[in-house]
Amino acid sequence: MPPPLRAPSFQSALLEWSAGARRQLPWRRTRDPWAVLVSEVMLQQTQVARVAPAYAAFLSRFPTPAACAAAPAGDVVRAWAGLGYNRRALSLHRAAEAIVDRFGGSLPAGLDELVSLPGVGPYTARAVQAFAWEADVGVVDTNAARVLARAVAGRRLAPAEAQSLADSLVPQGRGWDWNQAVLDLGATVCRRHSPRCDCCPLAAAQKCTWATGGHADPDPADGSAGVGRGQAAFAGSDRQGRGRLVDALRVGPVAMRALAPACGWPDDPARAARVADGLVRDGLAVIEGDGLRLP
Length: 295
Fold this sequence. Notes:
This protein has 295 residues and is mostly helical. It has helices at residues 8-21, 33-43, 48-61, 65-70, 73-79, 87-103, 111-115, 122-132, 142-153, 159-169, 175-188, 201-204, 209-212, 238-251, 259-263, 269-282, and strands spanning 254-255, 286-287, 291-293.
């Protein structure tokens, strides 16, 4: 670790900043493992502003893994409206079923057991450990990865390096506080474009390797493990048509002849049929008579 970051003052600078700047998010008011898992799955590739209103409504409908597992998958998909990437709803439903079938209805605390659940990868598993059980593990998402690459390492990081570095930085007994601080810094200050170094507590305390080095090019976050890359345009994409069709299915079955208008491509039935086939393969739709419906 670079010399400026060996001292406890690095952790202190970030934790002191977080005490006054922490975002007040609804999932931060719970330590219930299921509620934490729901929030983490929702936040995958979806902005906080869109997740916040859906989170409480979803948990009101499915307050426990057992409640989610007992519901038809289609009900979970309906409750996922507005969040996008609807396969996550199916993954969460399947995870709930596994939690009930294999773990008696309670989320397991072990990393290996958590990553064995459908749709739960290493990041999500560690997030549940840190935010439900306050475990001293590092949580590395896109925002945290930028902080690690820029402030700590000052260079690109391979995946294993990033996780090892994140774990080593967690102050003992402060896993929840520390990870929230790192995530907030990456989301609101150490942003991908136009980082706000002028108001960064690490830059001000001369604890950011990139800042103390004069923000030399290339940006250490570029190409670093865990740092998200831009996606292809959504407008006009198959993803857009797919989302439109799922929204139509939330209302009710869609006849085969209505697939193209439902996708927003009234003059391209072949493309709509291809998208519909993908939904069926993914388990987001089933064929019933001369149409599709949610599972």
